Amino acid sequence: MYDLVVIGAGMSGLMAAGAGARRQKKVLVVAKGQGALSLSSGCIDFNPGLLEREEGSPYFKVREVVEESFNFFKYLVKRCGLNYVGSPSEQTRIFTTLGTVKNSCLVPESMFLENPDSYERIIAVGFKGYFDFSPKMFLYYAKKSGIFPGLKETEEVYFEPGVRTVNTTWLAQALTRGELKEKLIAFLKPYARPKTLMVFPAVLGDLPEDRLFKEVEEVLGVKVVELPGGFPSVPGQRLHKALVSSLKEMGVNFLFNAEVIGYKKNLRQVTSIKIKESGGRVREISGKAFVLATGSFWGKGLRANTEEICEPIFQSKVYLPRNFAEDFNFLASGIYTDEYLRPIKELENLYGAGSILANSNYLKNNSGLGLALATGYKAGLLALGDGEVRRNA
Amino acid sequence: MLKDISLETLNHCAKCSTCTANCPVAKVNPDFPGPKAVGPDWLRLSLNAETKVDYPEGIEYCSNCKNCEIACPSGVPVASLNQLTRAEKLKKKGFRLREKLFANPRLLGRIAVNFAGLVNFFTKIKIFRLIGKTLFGISENISFPAYAHKSFSRWFGSYRQKVNKPKNKVVYFPGCFTEYNKPEVGEALVKILNRLNYEVIVPEFKCCGQPAIGNGRLDTAQEFAHFNLSQLKKYVKDGTPVLFSCPSCLLTFKEEYGGLLGIEEAREFVPYFYEAGEFLRGLQEIDKLLECEPIEGKYAYHEPCHLKASGVGTPGLELLNEVAVNKIVPLDAGCCGLSGSYGLKAEKEPITEAIGQNLKKAIDRHAPEALVTECGMCGVQLNNVSGLPVYHPLELLAEKITKES
Ligand SMILES: Cc1cc2nc3c(=O)[nH]c(=O)nc-3n(C[C@H](O)[C@H](O)[C@H](O)COP(=O)(O)OP(=O)(O)OC[C@H]3O[C@@H](n4cnc5c(N)ncnc54)[C@H](O)[C@@H]3O)c2cc1C
Ligand code: SF4
Ligand code: SF4
């Protein structure tokens, strides 16, 4: 019997599991497929200013755990060698592969650029046969952006990885291996001078603990920055991997490739969930408390057909935004919850978290992963019956 | 064969590339375009007569590890789609002797187990491996699994099970690896089950068929499947559970028979199939046995891809953690790279070696005394990269809980 069963292995589900593991509880995460987390840029967007303007935002239910949950997140990923920079009260500016500037909150150390005004040269590094990053386009927009006032010189360079077609994850992995790494560093050496910034697509190593960007910095004495953009997203994969590995090490159990299709209850409690495994076998898993963290449309927490939008597991009531089809309003769809993040009055040990919650439109509040992080963590605490959290809520 | 290859299945594909990002082969081999390209992308073109193109290049490199399918957010059976296309392509090209041999481990196993010392000796000698490579395309360096001196069924045939009456019954499918290479795993399970008052039945079986699928011989796999299912019929009809200690056998029975191989009837058997650890964990009586002498030492655990794909979680690890003094460290290093007979082929050897680097790194980081995993072939690879001893969770458990007090 698990103390906590979490449905979904996206940011919100993993943080709920983390909250449980931190309190030495027996936790199980069940998931069918990777959700939006691994497709994301790896940057944790979070913007309290915008969230406060969103009527009914779940943010109002989790404000007091934001700081704690963000710190805990940093701790979790750091255990796997992945460092994040930033704090929930500040916006962090990063650059994308398109040369545009994006405001995020917590960002991987490899994307963080502290003083853009201190650089006089930018070397944009592309790869022959790899088309997801155009150094030319990056430089064109970066120069226009006005963020590099001291800029005197730019250059686009193309490294030859030596294969016909370059697949992103192959490249990320190959660059960390002996010969290609040496070749890359030798290739870049002539461009290394003081006050130089080298920008790369986010392919400098595929694992969370790979710190190729640091190695290049140290060997060449330049500043290196990775730029997010495009699918698959290596930083999104690193983030997903770091969280899962870290939680496994903390003793969280995982059940992948199993879809939750229903539940059983007794009085006012969910007693078990029904899962469908490979081959179609259905079985039950019992637990003391449950967190529903199945994401929005992408994660499959919400399903839309021609008539309605539903939450398929518990049939929680779903909020439909007005002017649904316009201006990405539909992304605010989601399940209603009470002040303790519970979607269904009659099910007292069920909590909801992440983008499945109503009134969280990540395109408008620029807080997708950040809100999933905080709501997930809080749902985990509440599910474990953390009295103090409940009083504060 | 798989019925659901229709435009509908393919339309579920959102082209997000999550599958490719999670493919261990695409990560290390630039000649493999990855599951999305050889799967849904290629099929979309091929289903339309006007855009039909030749078989996708590089699809031979797919190892059927299933990581693409596990990661896909849209429920597309990417790995199975790839096996179908790959099998068709291989069939057209004609099979080599190597594929025929590897497709049925029993052919070699039955002979080798009688001359285990000799066979194990020869597979370690460089010159023989070189001959193997030149003539048959068999890898020169990757260690072959060692053969046991006595097969599991020989042991089982002469073993007297000690069970009190009234007793329960379970069927056990040992699989080729337990049968010919590591009978200790089956012995461990039988002894644990006996302690729990379960009598074990082992009917005559053929190979599960996963190696045949991996070598593109779907007809052979179907033939095995039909035989195995007919052997199980009467037990399953009485509701007798069927246990597997090998994750790949489990996945094949559970998923591939009814899915990839399209044997409709197989679906009815699925509710009775259990991973051995999963079955044990589900028994109330096990709790008492787990109050045994604790397991000491520092172990690290490798989760086989096919166990992950079976959707049963990691029950063996959970059981061990109940009795281990030190929590078993999860390596979480992904696919081991050997993928059954995949890595025993010369052209796949570099791929296997490259994928295995992640395992090696994780093992170095945690510095365990020994390793634990359910899959026999993963165990071979774990031993290759680390030199450490490797155990099945059942072996470690049996040592403690079948000890007479
Ligand atoms: C393409 C894309 C890019 C984005 N980029 C960013 C970004 O860069 N920064 C940012 O801050 N935000 C970004 N967002 C928004 C952000 O990713 C999401 O708001 C956030 O990830 C939601 O997290 P979640 O945990 O709620 O859901 P998800 O991450 O979607 O996770 C849902 C999980 O539930 C599982 N699941 C669903 N149904 C079932 C079931 N029945 N049984 C078992 N498991 C189930 C899924 O498999 C998955 O594991 C992006 C969103 C998208 C779609
Ligand atoms: S992960 Fe699934 S949906 Fe995404 S590209 Fe692959 S098959 Fe298509
Ligand atoms: S089954 Fe494994 S090797 Fe084959 S495409 Fe999928 S992830 Fe890659």
TrEMBL record, chain A:
Keywords linked to the UniProt accession: Flavoprotein, FMN, Oxidoreductase
One Gene Ontology term of the molecular function aspect: glycerol-3-phosphate dehydrogenase (quinone) activity
GO CC field: glycerol-3-phosphate dehydrogenase (FAD) complex
SUPFAM superfamilies hit by this protein: FAD/NAD(P)-binding domain
InterPro entries: FAD-dep_OxRdtase_2_FAD-bd, FAD/NAD-bd_sf, G3P_DH_GlpB_su
TM regions (residue ranges): none
Domain FAD-dependent oxidoreductase 2 FAD-binding, residue spans: 3-46, 175-359
Pfam family, one: FAD_binding_2
Protein name as annotated: Anaerobic glycerol-3-phosphate dehydrogenase subunit B
Source organism per UniProt: Carboxydothermus islandicus
From TrEMBL, chain B:
Entry-linked PANTHER family: ANAEROBIC GLYCEROL-3-PHOSPHATE DEHYDROGENASE SUBUNIT C, GLYCOLATE OXIDASE IRON-SULFUR SUBUNIT
Signal peptide boundaries: none
Keywords: 4Fe-4S, Iron, Iron-sulfur, Metal-binding, Repeat
SUPFAM superfamilies per the UniProt record, alphabetical: alpha-helical ferredoxin (SSF46548)
Name recorded for this polypeptide: sn-glycerol-3-phosphate dehydrogenase subunit C
GO annotation, cellular component aspect: glycerol-3-phosphate dehydrogenase (FAD) complex; membrane
Superkingdom, taxonomy of origin: Bacteria
Keyword Transferase belongs to the record: no
GO function term, MF aspect, one: oxidoreductase activity
Domain 4Fe-4S ferredoxin-type: 3-33, 49-82
This protein's record includes keyword Lyase: no
NCBIfam families the UniProt entry points to: glycerol3P_GlpC (TIGR03379), PRK11168.1 (NF008369)
